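Two quick folds needed for the group meeting slides. Do the first one here.
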Amino acid sequence: MKLSIVTSLYYSASYIEEFCRRSAAAARSVSGDDFEIVMVNDGSPDDSLAVALRLAAQDPRLVVVDLSRNFGHHKALLAGLREARGEKIFLIDVDLEEEPELLLPFHETLLREKVDLVYGVQQTRKGGWFERWSGALYYKIFDYFSDMPLAHNQLVARLMTRQFVEALLCFPERKIFLGGLFALSGFTQLALPCVKHSKGSTTYSLAKKVEQAIDAITSFSAKPLYLIFHLGISIFFISSVALVVIVGRKLIFDDVLVGWTSLIALISLFFGLTMMSIGVLGIYLSRIFEEVKERPHVIVRKVWRQEDAAIE
């Protein structure tokens, strides 16, 4: 098979039909009729699965993967990549914020530049001022903590060779941050400027975005642990100097510093720093805890492929 298009479904019922129509039209332009569209139902509470199955019954090139529950966006996409059989795999979100027609320039660039991955980056980050500001802040923080360069404002949309996807699927970790895994996989990668549209609503709440940012940093950098170490050394040094000054003033000038307010403030400050440090250590310990259990990324309830049904 020449091409696989992979997406995930979560509150996606209203987009699926148009997505499949536009994706199929784009796929025909680059691979004729030799393609498949793999849709992973990530435990969607709406009727996304029913819509996908109805369309799959009409078109044998549609493959539906139903997960046993909601495992998360990135894990669902990885599940779709495992089911994909194409020589080239196009990964994209179903909500049409990223146009399925991006497949055409991506495919042209992949062939012309002879690279293993072509991915989209936003020319101008979509959304209001807070989304743009928080997105810029996130990438700055990630760049500071991580030793691995990461392209800013990446899209999910990307076209990959089979070799690249097989390398990507070798990573066994349970906490999935796809942007980091794509970068870690190496090979030859090329970014293309794209426009990402806004549908006005998202299933990614602010809390989920913050959680994803913490996962990304702690999964790809140990620098927060080193910062805790340096913070401890700095506090020890400052405290030692302050103690020497206090003792010196007592011995030389018989002067005792009094100030319960400042003392309480310092105690509160150090208590906060201690709790923050313990919290960072706890996050890393929780990552270890999740990895050593070696639980599967996802559990697949059923896969619908018409050609497999025909063989049976």
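Then this one, please, same format:
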Amino acid sequence: MSVLIDGSPAVVDIDRSEPPRHVTVLSLALAIVAAVSAALTFYLPDVLLGPAVTNGNARGTALAILYGAVPILLASMFMARRGSWRAVFFWFGSMFYLAYNAFLLLFLTPFNSLFLLYVATQSLAVFAIFTLYSALDRDWLVGQMRPPPYRGMAVFVWVIVALNALAWLLEIVPAVLSENPMSMLDGIGVATNAIYVQDLVFWLPMMALAAWWMWNGRGAGILLTGSWLVYGVIEAIGIAVDQWFGHQADPTSTWASVEIIPFLIGLALVNAIGVVFYMRARRVDTGG
């Protein structure tokens, strides 16, 4: 089946015909492996060997993967193959979420019997993102959109990146300058905070670069920014779920709080409004 919108060329693939087989196969494999690892993590909690609060966090994340990110991934793949250009952003956004949280399951939970499944999820997510990005006709995709305010969106992204980085540095710098840097990890049972690692090493720099591309009207920046908005909706809801489960597992821990949940739901709504605004069609269409 060709991916068409009102007779327009295909959404993915340079030759504008069928999406390359490996794109769909990798994404489908990712959905299956992620669902299996998440189901085992959530429904077999004894496999988790960390403190109660991080075990609760991991189960909440697994629940968000199983009933949130994986269904969104499968639905967006199906809709993109049927011609929806908007679904491509959800395809990327759901895979961003799976890649991000597979990393946390690998490094923010102590080594356990599901390690290889977490590794497979992380690897499949990385390669599925890369292959879809490589196959996508970004110029055609951008051509379907009503141009958003590129420079305004770029500034918005830079502000979020700067605030996020500042929040982490305000926690990290005092810790590394203290007599006992490991004190900041008390109660979570790991050697380092994987959230700081991947945010500061990859995700925040990537979004800063994507914003620069968007500032200059490049398709890569437009694609990544829109996908990041979708990821933001899923991630905010996922954090709310993992905070609730972590708090239920250990109400005394400072690593999980139910008070932050209303803020996270509000953040998800703000991102959702951004998604709706961002993905307006250039013309009336029936494919998205």
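Slide caption for protein two: The chain has one domain: 21-278.
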